[in-house]
Design a protein that fits this description.
This protein is mainly α. About 70% of the residues lie in helices and about 0% in strands. The longest helix is centred in the N-terminal third of the chain and has 16 residues.
């Protein structure tokens, strides 16, 4: 028995959309408002290649995770960056921090606060 496979434009479009949706889910995590300053603090430690500041940030991250104030996804993202820096890959760590920082979006509460302050 021979089967022919025809890819219609509709099927192709559906497949491409599925891939796009999956790829969108593979981005950087959203840091909670409480943890967003950690991105800036860690970026300072990495951009100055300061091991002491790096370890101070690592301690804060561990403490917040243990206290339930930092999600697994946030911790994993930070730990990956810290691992790169600890291995001397400062530039790669900084690039990942920049990408993480750019991926952050305001929460609904933050948007509402801005709208109230403008109105």
């Amino acid at each position: 028995m021979i089967f022919k496979c025809y890819v219609t434009p509709h099927l192709l479009c559906s497949g491409l959309m599925a891939v796009a949706i999956l790829a969108a889910g593979c981005g950087h995590p959203q840091a909670s408002p409480l943890n967003r300053p950690l991105i800036a603090s860690l970026r300072t430690a990495v951009s100055t290649q300061n091991p002491e500041w790096l370890e101070r940030n690592a301690s804060i991250i561990d403490e917040r995770h243990a206290a339930g104030e930092l999600s697994e996804e946030e911790r994993d993202a930070f730990q990956t960056i810290i691992g790169l820096a600890r291995d001397g890959q400062w530039e790669e760590a900084e690039q990942r921090l920049i990408a993480l920082q750019k991926a952050q979006r305001p929460t609904a509460a933050e948007v509402q606060q801005v709208e109230l302050s403008e109105g």
